[in-house]
Write a structure and sequence with these properties.
The protein is α/β, with parallel strands linked by helices. 35% of the residues lie in helices and 18% in strands. It folds into 2 domains: 175 residues, Aspartate Aminotransferase, domain 1 (Alpha-Beta Complex), CATH 3.90.1150.10; 272 residues, 3-Layer(aba) Sandwich (Aspartate Aminotransferase, domain 2). The strands form 4 sheets. It has a 7-stranded mixed beta sheet, sandwiched between helices. The chain is globular.
Length: 464
């Protein structure tokens, strides 16, 4: 085991400049000193000392199709040479065709007509969805969202994100959320199956509508004070918590009874992360709005957006100029997005991701048997979780996971004679969950490698 890593002289010069000139508000230093990276390819990134790190979080699931994916990179390069820029008040082929792909797919899967509206990223698209929802509900600004939910850090998005720390310094600007418990079975009541706990959570939510004195429902007019329920079908920052399969179907029934829209936030779990284009597809419900971003362009050029039902977003109810962003539907982003859809239509990504996810999960389950500090593992496709706990296998142990993350970033583990680092992401209600989002293109040998590196970190953590 190595000592604390010291920055190289060249890196230290850059870090000194960062300390003087860069805002710390747009980044997080998880480790000290922070790494400075110089190149990437496939499932790996290399630092300025050319030390390789296997990345099992892929830019928070923005790079689903691997770093420097040749096909997607070439789509970007070709677009740069034809139509690299055009103002968003004008049309270009890529915007129209990408909208068509998403809308036609939604019609096929959900049986609903709808339209696509673009912006430059996930949080901005959440903001646009809030405008669509508020407009369609005659200006209602109250929303339901989940405990453990994360929807971004812009002013509107942070108001429906469950962490107060993102709002503490800024207050509220219109939207407010009533945060509802999510069926987090590992930390739920004992003696219940996962499905029973999901039903109980829905029943607790439905109680809000039993009487006007619960404060959300007027039985005389059959109107709810809340416009929509923002859901992450699989919780992201909350720790890749996967609900029971009956949960959203039962929840949607309650929402439909009371005229509340369901907005599915697919920013982190969309584009085959869970083995389907949208993670909500696993749960047999029809969302009213879908918000997407991140992996649409494989992280190459910022582009996000929303799909919404025709009744919510047609030009009569949401006319031109209802919202605007200079770089929305930019041609570089739409070109990569189109190529991503073409690429995923040629291979059965769903089957491939589910098979790899099953294999990876079996490896995590084997580690769980051998290391008592792993309290829970779960996964859907290649969205996987590994919850680090105390010796009892239940008490959250953030300190141990922090130690593992730091050890992984030392780049000093050896597998088959090769020195490597391991990049992990931390999530969960108690920041004790390894949230694993490897490249969808990860090979089976690379999955084995990732499991071996995780095993080394678990040994270090157990023996420290």
């Amino acid at each position: 085991m190595s000592d604390i890593r010291i920055a190289t002289a060249e890196d230290q010069i850059l870090l000194d400049k960062e300390a003087k000139y860069c805002s710390y508000g747009d980044t997080v230093h998880y480790i000290e000193p922070p790494r400075i990276f110089s190149r990437c390819e496939g499932s790996y990134v290399w630092d300025t000392e050319d030390q390789a790190y296997l990345d099992l979080q892929m830019w928070y699931s923005a790079v689903n199709f691997g770093y420097a994916n040749p096909r997607l990179n070439n789509a970007l390069k070709q677009q740069i040479d034809t139509l690299p820029q055009i103002a968003s008040q004008y049309l270009h082929k890529g915007k129209i065709e990408l909208s068509e792909m998403i809308a036609v797919d939604a019609k096929k899967k959900f049986g609903l007509d709808g339209r696509v509206h673009f912006n430059v990223g996930g949080s901005q698209s959440i903001e646009d969805s809030l405008k669509v929802v508020r407009n369609a509900s005659n200006g209602k600004s109250l929303m339901f969202a989940f405990e453990g939910g994360y929807h971004g850090r812009t002013l509107g998005a942070s108001s429906i994100t469950s962490s107060f720390r993102y709002r503490r310094r800024y207050g509220h600007f219109g939207e407010r959320a009533n945060f509802i418990p999510f069926p987090y079975h590992f930390r739920g009541p004992k003696g219940m199956t996962k499905e029973e706990y999901g039903s109980q959570c829905v029943q607790q939510f439905a109680r809000l509508f039993e009487t006007e004195y619960n404060g959300v429902w007027d039985p005389k007019t059959n109107q709810c004070e809340y416009a929509a329920f923002y859901v992450e079908p699989i919780q992201g920052t909350g720790g890749y918590v996967i609900p029971p399969m009956n949960f959203y179907r039962e929840l949607k029934h309650v929402l439909d009874q009371h005229g509340i829209l369901m907005v599915s936030d697919e920013i982190q779990m969309g584009f085959y992360r869970t083995g389907k284009l949208w993670s909500i597809e696993h749960f047999d419900v029809q969302p009213d709005v879908i918000v997407f971003g991140k992996a649409l362009t494989n992280g190459l050029n910022p582009l996000g957006g929303i799909w919404a039902r025709e009744e919510l977003i047609n030009p009569k109810i949401f006319p031109p100029g209802s919202t605007h962003s200079t770089f929305a539907s930019n041609p570089l982003g739409t070109a990569v997005g189109l190529e991503m859809f073409k690429m995923t239509s040629e291979i059965d990504y769903g089957a491939m991701v589910m098979a790899k996810g099953k294999y990876f999960l079996e490896g995590l389950q084997d580690l769980q048997k051998r290391f008592p500090i792993i309290g829970d593992v779960d996964g859907l496709g290649l969205a996987l979780r590994c919850e680090i706990c105390g010796p009892d296998g239940f008490a959250p142990d953030k300190a141990t996971l922090d130690y593992m993350v730091e050890e992984g970033m030392k780049g000093d583990m050896v597998v088959d004679g090769r020195k490597l680092g391991l990049i992990l992401d931390v999530g969960g209600y108690y920041k004790n969950v390894i949230t694993l989002a490897p490249s969808l293109e990860i090979s089976y040998p690379e999955i084995d490698l990732g499991l071996k590196l995780l095993e080394q970190l678990l040994v270090r953590a157990t023996n420290r």
